[in-house]
Every structure is written in structure tokens, then in C-alpha cells.
Design a protein that fits this description.
heterotrimer; A alpha/beta; B mainly alpha; C mainly alpha; A: alpha/beta; D-Maltodextrin-Binding Protein, domain 2; 4 domains; five-stranded mixed β-sheet; three-stranded antiparallel β-sheet; 23 helices; 12 strands; globular; C: mainly alpha; MetI-like fold; 2 domains; 14 helices; BP-dep_ABC_trans_perm (chain B); MetI-like_sf (chain B); transmembrane helix (chain B); MetI-like (chain B)
Chain lengths: 530, 277, 323
């Protein structure tokens, strides 16, 4: 039985279990027959607990029974995981609500790209409008949405609904749920977990001629071939690999990552260089945040210089590369490796949605699913010789509009409960979405469900990914540093320290003006500009 | 063929070449609308290829496309019609009675129209949020009407000043009422001004993005917002979608300047220059 | 006058009895001294609701610290926001950059427009003129959003069409929107492309305003070409041309969509224009106080431009009356 078959049977079993067609005992028997792992069984039994037969939301008692509700979800445009959140609502939750909860629900999806979505959400919420009932927020926005009271604090709702009392991956909890950092206030529920992965053109890397050439040039060291090989690759070794494949005359580049000024593109791919080499971006808590003197450290300046060096191994125009540009570059075969959010696994591999693994979505493109491998991005060697990876966390939480009326709130909560059913999570994963539920990731079958899951799971655990600030002032802080980092990358500013000093001064000022810190920018800041 | 006509042909050929040169980027967008996805990012660029209608079909099938397009029509036509009525009445009053403050109001209206949209939208956004007009249809419609009023007023006042007051007087002496004079006697005289104001304000509203994005809600979204926000699909840039949507959306303005070419000058200079090219 | 008479007789003779019956109250309306003001009621409502109220709002908020995404109440800060603007090197540099953009873009469009306008002068008998002019004038009626987005593809260094020809002709590709020395000019180039047709249009209008008789006289006198321009065309045409330049200047000052979509103000801040800064302050940072004070400053600049514009218009009117 292949993993594909297994997951299908698993799903069927779960469906039967939830629909109340099987007793607990029968379900267990079938699960054993399928050879399900212990965690999967545990998941199954969780499904049992929340099974509609036993649940309080039976048709007769659902306050919405007989009604028709129109729900609107605002999400990230062209971002497959957001789209999945809406597709599953229509395909699975709608019939479920009809059958089990007794009401009709219709979903519409409004979308905007990453860099424009917050404006769309904020201009609507500022008018206390409930036109978007559920909002897929990027993780950094939590504070900006929570602070003015635009989204619902979820602690009470979670306390009332055992189905929402789920153990998430710790990085997901910190990144997608909590504001202010370190508190226990919950504002979001993980929609899509995400980490950075490295996409590798395995057809090039396994080519014997390439391997021989690389060995000859690098004292006998071979090109990495497996996930385990890549685990041992640090950034120095990676630079050699990138250099090896950089052949502008053949239209091939060694690597590519996000360097665009738009939104958080540079930041997310520069931070790993800082975090992994011991750099920090902010210290202290609300009231005592300190950025000046923290961000503008020599470690961070060196990290910027190292990051910029990879521009030499990148395709033309790399300083305008954001998420979508990288997909175009990698799938058209212009780079041998590419850093990208793991959530885009299927798109980066040019894999046809919903088709059997391996089938190309656009056969005219040179990159096909079988010649792509997805691995952990390079590590950074520490002083003690150990390897360390601390990359930026991606991903988005669900948030619920605070101005929803009781009916829409009820549907939103019902959908959230439905979203975390093991069956739904499994379907989400099968279509390429990254789940954040710990039990789902623990399932030994999980790694094989999608080619990118192994790298995703590796990177979201053990502190290998972390988010940056969730402060309500994030947008200004982000815009400032994107401008400064872009200025350094493109040579407008020669000295990385100047870009860092400028950023640190501005950000300290932003937090001070916003009364988030008592520390004023220093006198020296008056002389710093880009 | 004599020498003059040969030179004439060469001259006309050169003019055509210049016109085509300016049109070239637009042509590139139009061609892209009929290219298969891979061809758009191909090297070398392709001028000749087997056209496909898939992209257009994809646009037509997009959720929201038809309602956004309908909204583009409704908002641009509705707002401009309101603006024309309002400005025509005002222009008549300004032109014939010259009330005190005429110049000042005309000046202020024009100034506001000269301010960057991003500056205008800040207070309007705050006001709309406070009044609950944000995201409403009438909020958007009346805002665009306001948007179209200054130029309509300027164009129509210019034209009305050019209509001799003797028309009004003769009609009044002959027993016509003021309203009769305004709508039956004077209005037909300024028809070119009305057409020019109509076409050019429509093009402005038709192409407008920022106000619609920030003040409009999901029920009042026009195509330019879709152009800016529907850029990505499946994780990458959806060039075929942008190209085919642009193609569809650019046709009406281009058609308008073809059909109403003689009003082009009046429209583009807000009535301060009259004549044809 | 004969023509006028016939035109006016028609509707009055044809007036229906019902219309005559209505005349009593319409007469009363006509004689009312409120009539002129009555016509102004709609526009005044618009003016007050959409100009005066927002303007007061704007000026009011510009004295406050008000961040939409903050739970803090707005607080009065006096002139602080304005002081910040005047002390900020960034904002001054942005204004300077906007000025450079304006000068370059309007300057180039004017030079090109005048030259091409002169070339198109006398094209009346050109075959397919209407279609040719439509193609020529197309760039100025396009949605800036579409233009901005699509020029990213046209400029793209790996498969962009401009780079293909750059490679063929000069043997190398350019990262037009990513290179710090090129991005600004690449943005200017798109603006020039969009608005040169407008300057051609204005040049043609200016040329059209030159009396035929004077031109014919010059033809008879065999006046050299340059002198004809200097002594006959320029005196008549310069006002219209001046208007064109002013309108373009005002528009170029407002440019926001193009850099927003093409470069997002980058690389670094090379294409950050004042319209874009306003947008960021207002709708990315949601600092409404800062945004309002910056908007007040740009409003004053715009009023200054408009005043020059009107001054030129009045000057022209005065000249026309003198003749």
C-alpha cells in the first residue's frame, strides 16, 4: 500500500468515523487493519471526541439551523495556501454545515497581494465594517490588527470549544497566535505554517559530469545528493556550490532568493544570515524595546555583506525578485538552486494541482517535478564548529473580524472547528498546504505526503524558524528597513553599517513615538541618513 | 510618379511609423493577451505565434470579473452624468450671473483636482469612515462625481462664455422661461463641451485605481483594482491574465479617442483650449 | 443673426398648452433673485461636503498625532508634524526627487512633443490619419495601473522585450528597474512615453491657432523657416503650449501609480516620489496626522501651481481682449 492509498483510506475512515457511521470500536479495528501509526490513531480518536453525533452542535440545537449565511474571506492573492483555505470551505465545510449543522453557507473570497492586503483589511476594519468576516492575516500584522480591537481575541472562544484546544508547533503558536510576544493573549489560529526551504535542481546535481567537475575544483568534495547531505552543508560550502553553477553565458545562475524592496521580501531572506550568526534585531519588552545598538551590530553588518555576495550568483534583475518572480525564475530553469517559502513546493516543482505526483503543470517549462529536490537551506557554522539554522518564519493565521454579528461569528467558529478536524488537516496537507498541528506533523506518513513536507517539518522545529516583530508599528518599521536594505543591495549605500544605523535610528524613533518604548533615539541619529 | 508625391508618401510613411512606434508597447500588451503562458516569458520575444483565446476565456471565467466590469461602467457613467448635470447648472449661473466668489470657487475646485490623489484620499477616507460612507455605493459614486465636477465645470463654463448672451435674451423676449432657455436653447449650443467633458471624465474614472482601492468595498470594485491585486496566481506572476484583462479594459478608451477624436483637445485641456487637431 | 432667429423660433412656436400653463411658476422662478443661487445649490453641496469638510478635516488632523492602528486616542501636538516635515532630510530629498522627475519628464515630453507636433503639422491629407492619430494618442488614455505593471515585464532583464533589442543592438542587457543608476530614468521614460502624445496634441493646437493669413504672408515673403517659427508661430502659439506644459507639470507632480507598481520606490529610494511617500504614511503606516500635514504641504504646492496656471490663462484672456 503506497502512502497515497493509505492516506485515502485514512481519510475515508475518518469520514466514516465523523459521520457517525462507525462505532469507536469498529473504527479502531479498521485503523489497526490499515496499519495506522499510533499518532494517526490518536488523531482518529480526537475526531471521535468531536464527532457530530456526540457534539453539541447537532442540527436541532444549532442556532443557525435553516438559515443561509454569506461568508466572506479576505486572503492573500495568488497565494495557494490562502486559496486552499477558501476552496476547502466551499468544497468540504459547506456540505458539512448543510448536513450536520443544518444551515446553508456560501463563501466568497476577496484577495490582494501580500504588500496590499493589510491596506485592504485596515481600511475596511477602520470603518468598523464586517464585510470580511474572516481575515487571513500575515503573521506580523497580528499586533496592528489586534491593538485597535479590529479582530477578536480568541482566548474565550478557545476555552469554550475543546475542538480548538490543539497543540500546535511552538513556532506556529508564537508566530501566528500570540500578541504581545510572551503574553498568553491569543488572536489568531494557524492557517498555514511556513518556513524557508531550498529548492534544488536534482537533474543538475546528480549529473555525473557536474559531480566530477565539482570534485575536481573542490578538492574531491562531492555535490550534495540527499536530504542528509544537505543538512551538513553550511553557507561557505553552499557558496562554492552556487559559484559552480553560475554560468551567465548558459543562462544559468547558482542560486536566487528574495531581494526585492516590496513588502518583507528582503527582510525574510536577510534575517536568516543575521539570526544564524548570532545577530539580533530587537531587545526588551513593551516599554523598553531597544533597537538602536542591537540591530546595528557588526555581526549584522557582516551578515548583510554575506547576503549581498550571493547576488553575484543570481540571475539578472535579482534585486527585484520577490515571491512570484522566484517561481518564474526557478521553473523556467534559470537557477540551479533557489530559496523559497516551502508552501510553494508544488508551484516551484511545476507540479500539476490535484494530479498524481510527478505530473508537470506546464509541460513546456524545463523544470518538472521529478528533477526537483526540496531540502533544508544552508546552515551557518558556529565558533564551536556546530551547525545552526535560524531562518525566518512565514505563514499566516486565521483571524476573525471583531465586528461580525452573532450569526457570522458562529459560522466562523464552526469553520475553525472544522478546519482543525484531522480529516480537514489531512486534505489540506494532501493538496500541498502546510499544517501546524503537532499531531499531524508527528504522523510518520506526514513527510511523504508532499515533497516539501520533510524540509518544512525540519525547519519549523527545534527553533530553526522564528518570526520577527508583531508590533502594531510593524508596517513603518518594515518599510524603513526594506528601503535601507534595498539601498545597500543596489549600491545606493556602500556601507552596510550605514543602512543598519539608519534603520535602527528610524525604528527606535517609530517605537518611541508610538509609546512602545521609553528609549529615545540617540543624538547620533541626527546625522544618519540614507 | 512625380517627385512631390513621392516625398509626400515618404512623409506620411514617416508619420505612420512614429504613430506605430508610440503604439508599440500597447501592441505588445495586446499580443501578450493572445499568447500561451510560456511564450510571454520566452527568449527571444516572439512577435509571431499561434494565437490562443484561452487567456480571454480565463478572464471571463474569473470570479468577480463581470461584476467588476459592470461596476466600471456603472460608476464611470453614473458619476459623470451626475457631474455634468451639476456642473452645467453651475456653469450657467457662473457664466450668466457672475455671482461674487465665482473665480474663487472655480479656482478652489481646480486646485483640489491638482492635488496628488494620495493627499486627497487621506481626509476623504477619515470623513467616510466617520460618516459610515466607506465601502458604500453612493459614497463611491458621489466621490467620483466630485472628481469629475471641476473639469466639467471648467469645460462647460468655457463653452457657455462662448455662447452669446443674445441667445438667452432673444429667447426670453420671445416668451421662453429661464429653464427653457437653459435646457432647450443654451444646452444644444454647448454639446461639444458636454461630449468632451463626458468622454474625458469617463476616461479618468474608468482608469482610476487608488480611490477605488481605498474607499471602495467589495460591492464597488472596478477593474483597475483587479489589475493591481490579481497580479499573482498560483504563486507566480500571472502575466497572461494581466495582459488579457488590460487588453479588454483598454479597448473602450482607445475606441473613444478614435470616435471622438475631434473632442480630444477640448477634453485634455479641460476646455481651456478649443479646436480640433 | 438670421440663423439665430430661426433657431430660437422653433421651440417657442411649438410650445404645448401644458407648457404655457407651467409658465406662471417658471416665470416666478425666473424673476426670483434666488434663481442664480438655486442653480448653484447642487455644486455647493458637493463643494461643501467633498471639499470644504475634508479640507477642514485635513487641516485639523494635521495638528494631531493620530495613528489608526493604535489603540491610543489622537492627541493634539500643535505644529509638531509640520516641524518634523521641515526637519526631515528624507522628505526634502523626496520633494527634490519629485522636482527632478517633473523637470525631466515634462522637459523631455515637451521637446519631443513640439518636434513631433511640428512634424505632424500639415498632415491633413495623410491617409488613415484618424487611425494613426488614435494609435499615437493611445498612451495617454491607458490605465496607469496596467501600464505600470506591464512595463515590469517589458523591462525584465531575463525575458523582457526591451532587453532583447538592447542585447541585439548594444550587446548587453540592462536591469532597468533594479539598477540604482537606471531605475529613475526608466520610470521617467515611461512617463515621457505616456505624455509626449499630449504635448504633440498641444503643439498641434498651438499651431492651429496661428492665423492662416500671416503664414501665407510669410510664404510670400519667403521668410526662412526658423524665422517663421520665431516671429509668427511662437507669438500666437506660446500660450497654448504654456498651458500644456503647466498641466503636465501639475500631473507629473502627482505621479504615484507608476513608481508604485514598477519599482515600489526602489531600488533603495531612487524612485520614491512625494505621492508615494504620502501613500505610505497614510495607508501603510496609517499615521494620519503625519500624512495630513504632508498632504497640507502638497496642497499648498498644488495651489501654487494652479495659481500660475490661472495667471497664464488670464494673461492670455487679457491679450485676446487687447487685440
Amino acid at each position: 500500500m503506497t502512502s497515497q492509498d493509505l492516506s485515502t483510506s485514512h481519510a475515508a475512515l475518518l469520514r466514516d468515523a465523523m459521520a457517525g457511521r462507525l462505532s469507536r470500536r469498529q473504527a479502531l479495528q479498521r485503523a489497526v487493519a490499515l496499519g495506522l501509526s499510533a499518532p494517526a490513531m490518536a488523531g482518529l480518536m480526537t475526531a471521535y471526541r468531536s464527532s457530530p453525533v456526540a457534539a453539541q452542535d447537532a442540527p436541532a440545537t444549532s442556532p443557525l439551523a435553516g438559515k443561509t449565511i454569506d461568508m466572506s474571506i479576505l486572503g492573500i492573492g495568488g497565494w495557494p495556501p490562502s486559496r486552499l483555505g477558501v476552496d476547502l470551505a466551499t468544497e468540504l465545510f459547506k456540505p458539512y454545515a448543510k448536513e450536520t449543522l443544518g444551515y446553508d453557507v456560501n463563501f466568497t473570497f476577496e484577495e490582494s497581494p501580500f504588500d496590499q492586503l493589510f491596506q485592504k483589511a485596515a481600511t475596511s476594519l477602520q470603518a468598523e465594517s464586517a464585510q470580511y468576516n474572516i481575515i487571513i492575516s500575515d503573521s506580523q500584522w497580528l499586533g496592528a490588527l489586534a491593538e485597535p480591537g479590529w479582530i477578536l481575541q480568541l482566548n474565550d472562544i478557545i476555552a469554550e470549544n475543546p475542538e480548538l484546544q490543539i497543540e500546535f508547533e511552538p513556532a506556529a503558536r508564537e508566530g501566528y497566535q500570540i500578541f504581545p510576544d510572551g503574553s498568553d493573549q491569543v488572536w489568531g489560529l494557524p492557517q498555514e505554517g511556513d518556513t524557508i526551504a531550498l529548492f534544488v535542481r536534482q537533474d543538475l546535481f546528480s549529473d555525473q559530469a557536474e559531480r566530477d567537475a565539482f570534485k575536481a575544483a573542490n578538492g574531491g568534495t562531492d555535490l550534495p545528493q540527499t536530504f542528509e547531505d544537505w543538512e551538513q552543508i553550511d553557507i561557505v560550502a553552499f557558496e562554492k556550490i552556487a559559484a559552480h553553477f553560475t554560468r551567465p553565458e548558459q543562462g544559468l545562475a547558482g542560486t536566487a532568493m528574495q531581494w526585492s524592496k516590496v513588502y518583507d521580501y528582503i527582510s525574510c531572506y536577510l534575517y536568516p544570515f543575521m539570526f544564524s550568526t548570532g545577530g539580533e534585531i530587537i531587545e526588551g519588552d513593551v516599554g523598553s524595546y531597544k533597537i538602536e545598538g542591537v540591530l546595528d551590530s557588526q555581526v549584522n553588518a557582516d551578515a548583510m555583506a554575506l547576503n549581498k555576495r550571493f547576488l553575484d550568483y543570481a540571475p539578472n534583475g535579482a534585486t527585484n525578485f520577490g515571491i512570484p518572480e522566484l517561481v518564474d525564475q526557478f521553473t523556467t530553469g534559470t537557477c540551479a538552486t533557489c530559496f523559497q517559502w516551502s508552501a510553494l513546493g508544488p508551484q516551484m516543482m511545476n507540479q500539476k494541482a490535484g494530479a498524481a505526483a510527478g505530473e508537470a503543470d506546464d509541460p513546456s517549462k524545463p523544470v518538472t517535478p521529478e528533477n526537483v529536490m526540496i531540502v533544508a537551506p544552508p546552515a551557518f557554522k558556529q565558533a564551536d564548529g556546530s551547525l545552526k539554522r535560524v531562518y525566518a518564519l512565514g505563514g499566516q493565521p486565521w483571524t476573525i473580524n471583531a465586528f461580525n454579528d452573532a450569526d457570522h461569528l458562529q459560522v466562523a467558529v464552526d469553520y475553525m472547528k472544522f478546519w482543525y478536524r484531522p480529516e480537514t488537516q489531512l486534505e489540506f496537507a494532501r493538496r500541498g498546504g502546510n499544517p501546524s498541528v503537532k499531531a499531524t506533523l508527528d504522523d510518520p506518513e506526514f513527510d511523504t505526503l508532499q515533497p516539501h513536507f520533510r524540509a518544512f517539518k525540519y525547519m519549523i522545529r527545534e527553533g530553526r524558524s522564528r518570526d520577527f516583530w508583531h508590533d502594531p508599528n510593524y508596517a513603518e518599521m518594515l518599510a524603513t528597513q526594506q528601503e535601507a536594505f534595498s539601498a545597500y543591495l543596489t549600491g545606493t549605500v556602500e556601507d552596510p553599517m550605514q543602512a543598519l544605523k539608519y534603520t535602527a535610528c528610524e525604528q527606535q524613533g517609530i517605537l518611541f513615538d508610538g509609546e512602545r518604548t521609553e528609549i529615545e533615539p540617540s543624538e547620533a541619529c541626527n546625522d544618519v541618513s540614507l | 510618379m512625380n517627385e512631390t508625391s513621392w516625398r509626400q508618401h515618404l512623409y506620411h510613411g514617416l508619420l505612420w511609423l512614429i504613430a506605430l512606434l508610440f503604439f508599440m508597447p500597447v501592441l505588445w500588451i495586446f499580443l501578450a493577451a493572445f499568447k500561451a503562458e510560456g511564450l510571454l516569458v520566452s527568449w527571444p520575444p516572439r512577435w509571431f505565434f499561434t494565437p490562443t483565446l484561452d487567456n480571454l476565456r480565463d478572464v471571463f471565467a474569473r470570479p468577480g470579473f463581470w461584476s467588476y466590469l459592470a461596476m466600471s461602467f456603472v460608476l464611470s457613467i453614473g458619476a459623470v452624468v451626475i457631474a455634468l448635470v451639476v456642473s452645467f447648472l453651475a456653469a450657467y449661473s457662473f457664466s450668466r450671473y457672475k455671482p461674487t466668489g465665482t473665480n474663487f470657487i472655480m479656482f478652489l475646485l481646480l486646485s483640489v483636482r491638482m492635488v496628488p490623489a494620495t493627499a486627497v484620499v487621506v481626509p476623504v477616507f477619515l470623513m467616510y469612515s466617520a460618516f459610515g460612507w466607506s465601502k458604500t455605493f453612493h459614497g463611491m459614486l458621489l466621490f467620483y462625481a466630485m472628481f469629475a465636477i471641476p473639469f466639467s465645470l471648467w469645460i462647460l463654463k468655457g463653452f457657455l462664455d462662448g455662447v452669446s448672451e443674445r441667445y438667452d435674451e432673444t429667447a426670453l423676449v420671445n416668451g421662453g422661461s429661464r429653464l427653457h432657455v437653459i435646457f432647450r436653447v443654451v444646452l444644444p449650443q454647448v454639446k461639444p463641451g458636454l461630449v468632451a467633458a463626458f468622454i474625458f471624465n469617463i476616461i479618468f474614472v474608468w482608469n482610476e485605481f487608488l480611490f477605488n482601492y481605498l474607499l471602495g468595498g467589495k460591492g464597488t470594485t472596478m477593474i483597475p483594482v483587479l489589475l493591481a491585486t490579481g497580479v499573482n496566481e498560483g504563486g507566480s506572476v500571472d502575466w497572461t491574465f494581466i495582459a488579457s484583462l488590460s487588453f479588454i479594459y483598454m479597448l473602450p478608451p482607445i475606441l473613444a479617442i478614435f470616435l471622438f477624436q475631434k473632442y480630444l483637445l477640448v477634453g485634455m485641456t479641460f476646455g481651456t483650449v478649443r479646436g480640433e487637431v | 443673426m438670421a440663423q439665430l432667429g430661426t433657431h430660437l423660433d422653433r421651440p417657442i412656436v411649438g410650445a404645448t398648452p401644458a407648457a404655457r400653463g407651467r409658465r406662471a411658476w417658471t416665470r416666478a422662478l425666473d424673476d426670483s433673485r434666488f434663481f442664480p443661487s438655486l442653480l448653484l445649490v447642487p455644486i455647493l453641496i458637493f463643494f461643501v461636503v467633498w471639499n470644504v469638510v475634508p479640507l477642514l478635516w485635513l487641516v485639523g488632523v494635521s495638528f494631531y498625532r493620530y495613528k489608526v492602528t493604535s489603540s491610543r486616542e489622537p492627541s493634539f501636538v500643535g505644529w509638531e508634524n509640520f516641524a518634523e516635515i521641515f526637519q526631515s532630510t528624507e522628505i526634502w530629498r523626496t520633494l527634490g526627487r519629485t522636482l527632478t522627475f517633473m523637470l525631466l519628464s515634462v522637459g523631455l515630453a515637451t521637446i519631443l512633443g513640439v518636434l513631433l507636433g511640428l512634424l505632424f503639422w500639415g498632415s491633413q491629407r495623410m491617409p488613415g490619419r484618424r487611425l494613426a492619430l488614435t494609435l499615437l494618442f493611445t498612451p495617454m488614455v491607458l490605465p496607469p495601473v496596467a501600464v505600470g505593471t506591464f512595463f515590469r515585464l517589458i523591462y525584465e532583464p531575463n525575458f523582457g522585450v526591451v532587453n532583447y533589442y538592447a542585447q541585439q543592438i548594444v550587446g548587453r542587457r540592462f536591469d532597468f528597474l533594479g539598477d540604482k543608476d537606471l531605475a529613475f530614468f526608466a520610470t521617467v521614460a515611461v512617463d515621457v512615453w505616456m505624455w509626449t502624445p499630449f504635448m504633440i496634441l498641444m503643439t498641434l493646437a498651438a499651431l492651429g491657432s496661428v492665423p492662416k493669413a500671416e503664414l501665407e504672408a510669410a510664404e510670400v515673403d519667403r521668410l526662412p523657416w526658423l524665422q517663421r517659427l520665431r516671429y509668427i508661430v511662437l507669438p500666437h502659439g506660446k500660450f497654448i503650449l504654456m498651458l500644456g506644459i503647466l498641466l503636465r507639470t501639475i500631473d507629473a507632480f502627482k505621479t504615484t501609480d507608476l513608481p508604485y507598481l514598477m519599482t515600489n520606490g526602489g531600488p533603495g529610494n531612487q524612485t520614491e516620489l512625494v505621492g508615494l511617500s504620502l501613500y505610505r504614511t497614510g495607508f501603510e503606516a496609517f499615521q494620519m496626522g503625519d500624512a495630513s500635514s504632508l498632504a497640507v504641504v502638497t496642497l499648498l504646492v498644488a495651489i501654487a501651481f494652479t495659481s500660475v496656471y490661472l495667471y497664464v490663462l488670464n494673461y492670455r484672456a487679457a491679450r485676446v481682449e487687447m487685440r
